[in-house]
Write a structure and sequence with these properties.
Elements lengths: L12 E4 L4 E3 L7 E6 L6 H12 L1 H6 L2 E7 L3 H11 L5 E3 L4 H5 L18 E5 L5 E6 L9 H8 L1
Parallel strand pairs: 3-4, 4-5
Antiparallel strand pairs: 1-2, 1-5, 3-6, 6-7
């Protein structure tokens, strides 16, 4: 399934790194950046999320909320969030439903791992439609954050 600009963003309810339930619908009426990332504690994922951490003032000035999602457990994500001092929710798609709904899932990743989230960026408008959608095939690539910010402006 390929989502495109103007589509309604699929809702989800996932467990956060603080063990609470978080739904996209909790953010209705707000601009939301959804980032899927393959795995916590890996080089490119750490670089990606820390770059958002370091630029959080820009996203705040654009009135945007950030949700970062991987198939890691909530416990792993809790440690990752703590270690990297990430100021936004990390959500566990351990059951791989959200990444599948967004078309952001590898059939097979490295080491034969199946269902790992593809690095992706989505911007959800306050009305719940997509303003931006980027799904990357290479886990070594980063989303185009200039385009993400432009979609939020």
């Amino acid at each position: 399934m390929t989502l495109k600009i103007g589509d309604v963003a699929p809702d989800f309810t996932l467990v956060s790194s603080d063990k609470s339930q978080v739904s996209l619908s909790d953010y209705k009426g707000k601009k939301v950046v959804i980032l899927f990332f393959p795995m916590a504690f890996t080089g490119v994922c750490t670089t990606e999320l820390c770059s958002l951490r370091d630029d959080i003032a820009t996203y705040s000035s654009l009135n945007a909320e950030i949700l970062a999602i991987s198939v890691d457990s909530p416990f792993t994500l809790g440690k990752f969030k703590e270690d990297q001092k990430l100021p936004f929710p990390l959500l566990s798609d351990f059951n791989k439903t959200a990444s599948a709904a967004y078309g952001a899932q590898y059939e097979e990743f490295v080491l034969g791992l199946k269902g790992v989230a593809k690095r992706s960026a989505f911007v959800v408008n306050p009305d719940g439609t997509l303003a931006y959608a980027e799904v990357l095939e290479s886990a070594g690539d980063l989303p185009n954050f200039d385009n993400v910010k432009a979609a939020l402006a």
